[in-house]
Amino acid sequence: MCLLFSMFLLILKEKYKLIFLNNRIQSFLMITVGILTISDSSFKGLRKDQSGPVIYQVCKDLSWKIVKQKIVPDDIKQIINVLSEWTSDRIQLIFTTGGTGLTQRDVTPEATMKVIDKLIPGIPELMRLETSKITKYTFLSRALAGIAEQTLIVNLPGSPKAVGECLSSIVSILPHALEMLEES
């Protein structure tokens, strides 16, 4: 059993370039996650949600527990309501996907700002830094991250490819951020 677990950690470390510290593995595996897809067309059933499943798969690969998953339209009030509800439910980590671009309907960062107590600018800075090695368009993203009570909220882009790239750049630091939140 111990050998299987070691092999599992090695695969995760390679796949997501994770840094494991022995005393953090347990809290790393206990993370609860909510995935909120923000898309008018997916909400209306006109387009299949493709970015939410990418987040789901990464979280599943990391043995994080997905406790909530929902699709809402690009409506600031609905986004605020879901983020507030999930924060009250004490979900540790909420990923949003979509609504971080430049159009008038892209309101995810504004909704997130209404819910969070503190910004964590380093998380989206790291996403932009790492993904800028792939495309310079990453600097057009308005994604942000912050803390609402004991919950970490991270905005991700709506593109499935960009979601995977952004997650790869930040998953290794999220357990430590959550551990710090838990200690406060």
Molecular structure report:
The protein is an alpha/beta fold and 184 residues long. The protein has one domain (20-183): Molybdenum Cofactor Biosythetic Enzyme, Chain A, CATH 3.40.980. Helices cover 47% and strands 17% of the residues. The protein is built from nine helices and six strands. It has helices at residues 2-16, 25-29, 40-43, 51-61, 76-88, 108-115, 122-131, 160-170, 174-183; strands at 32-38, 65-72, 93-97, 118-119, 145-148, 151-156. Strands 2-1-3-6-5-4 form a six-stranded mixed sheet, sandwiched between helices. Helix 7 (122-131) packs across helix 8. The protein is globular. The chain starts with a helix and ends with a helix. Mean pLDDT is 90; it is low at 19-28.
CATH superfamily: MoaB/Mog-like domain
At CATH level 2, the architecture is 3-Layer(aba) Sandwich
CATH topology descriptor: Molybdenum Cofactor Biosythetic Enzyme, Chain A
Sequence stretches where pLDDT stays below 50 over 5 or more residues: 19-28
Gyration radius, rounded: 16 Å
Mean pLDDT: 90
Shape by Cα distribution: globular
Q: Secondary-structure element sequence?
A: HHEHHEHEHEHEEHH
Strand order of the largest sheet: 2-1-3-6-5-4
* CATH C-level: Alpha Beta
The total domain count is 1
Distance between the termini: 34 Å
- How many helices? 9
- Estimate the helix proportion, in percent: 40-55%
- The count of DSSP E runs of length 2 or more, i.e. the number of strands, is 6
